[in-house]
Specification:
291 residues, globular, 2 domains, 48% helix, alpha+beta, three-stranded antiparallel β-sheet, seven-stranded mixed β-sheet, Aminopeptidase, 21% strand
């Protein structure tokens, strides 16, 4: 904790977060950061709230300031009049370019005194720190499998296991929509800045021989860019908590021998190998854990 707080104090001072005029642009960091996001990708007000973690009132105040300065334009979305789209004006585009240039200059001032080897070390360290901080701030949300986010991550999951061991997803979506939902199951999507980056599901199975209720973990997937940050383990623990909340006393799962990193993660998490318990033709390994 001390290291993180010290870094925050040091870094925010060096990049001018405390200045009333961030990078000399005549606006503090808040409006400047919002201007950057709007210029980086087309957005709706809802998308900006999710991406930046802002409440509606604060976002509205920032947008009104940028509109008053003639930098952004807020208009109804033609595809859905209930939504509002946000885009840069010509003046906003010029200010965005200036923000990009000054941000590059500021970064250059920080790294210029370093040797090439030190710059490489810094780049690796910042990349690792960024990934770990973003992984720590990911949120897990129960999600309807018919939603756009769920279809996106499940499609990526099926594509990956199709590449790795030839899995055929025909008919699987329909089964998932029946089983991975309350009251006995759930489907969870992990979001970072409003973007889905991982997923996993839980469905009920027949009671075990001793009468205990069991839940089966399904569709666990983590985006390639997020692997190595512990997100898979966090997702696994979250699904186990969901299983406990739903009254399951045992968690089960099956997987394929090609997914060696997943098998290692399950073993580290306390899952033990058991005999085959279903008729999944693609599964080669079966695991169980008492909750």
């Amino acid at each position: 904790m001390t290291v993180v707080r010290r870094f925050n104090r040091s870094y925010t001072q060096r990049i001018g977060v405390l200045d009333d005029s961030f990078l000399g642009l005549g606006m503090p960091l808040g409006p400047a950061r919002l201007l950057f996001e709007i210029g980086a990708a087309p957005a709706t007000t809802q998308g900006l709230r999710e991406r930046l973690g802002l409440d509606s009132g604060y976002l509205s105040r920032l947008l009104r300031r940028l509109e008053r300065d003639g930098l952004v334009r807020v208009t109804p979305d033609p595809a859905d009049r209930r939504r509002r789209r946000v885009g840069l004006t010509d003046a906003g585009r010029e200010r965005w370019k200036e923000l990009e240039r000054r941000s590059d200059d500021q970064a250059r001032l920080i790294v210029d005194p370093l040797t090439e080897r030190q710059r490489e070390r810094l780049a690796r360290a910042l990349s690792e720190a960024d990934l770990l901080v973003r992984a720590a701030t990911v949120t897990f949300q129960p999600t309807d499998l018919a939603s756009t986010a769920a279809r996106d991550v499940v499609g990526r999951y099926f594509a990956e296991i199709g590449r790795r061991f030839g899995f055929d997803a025909a008919g699987e979506t329909e089964k998932d929509e029946q089983l991975l939902k309350p009251p006995a199951g759930v489907f969870v999507v992990a979001f970072s800045d409003g973007e889905p980056v991982a997923c996993g599901g839980l469905q009920a199975t027949a009671p075990l021989a001793d009468g205990r209720r069991a839940g089966e973990l399904k569709r666990m997937w983590v985006h390639d860019d997020w692997r190595g940050a512990g997100l898979g383990s966090r997702l696994l623990r979250h699904l186990e908590d969901q299983a406990r909340a739903l009254g399951h006393r045992v968690a089960r799962l099956d997987t394929n021998a090609a997914l060696t990193e997943a098998i290692e993660m399950y073993q580290r998490a306390g899952y033990r190998a058991i005999d085959r318990y279903n008729d999944n033709p693609w599964a080669t390994h079966f695991f169980e854990k008492r909750l």
